[in-house]
Fold this protein.
Amino acid sequence: MPSSLKKLVRARMDATGENYQEALRAVRAAEKYTYRVKFSDADGEWVGTCDEFPSLSWLEATEAGALAGVKKLVADCLEDMKRNGEPLP
């Protein structure tokens, strides 16, 4: 497993209290979406976005941090949508 995936799983476990398998499942579900990271002159930070969730974004001082942040945000949204029986994009 790539170290970036391990970091996302660990961060999710720390934030949610989920066990390893639950966190891994959530992170992997979020991996199938399209992500973009670009520098925002207006904010002076990197912004991570997801094409399938246009209302979500994550600002961070580093490019890697913005990508990790938006991926975690999408994973959280997917879990919430599943819990509420909403269709996933």
In short: The two ends are 26 Å apart (CA to CA). Strands lie at 35-40, 45-50, 53-60.
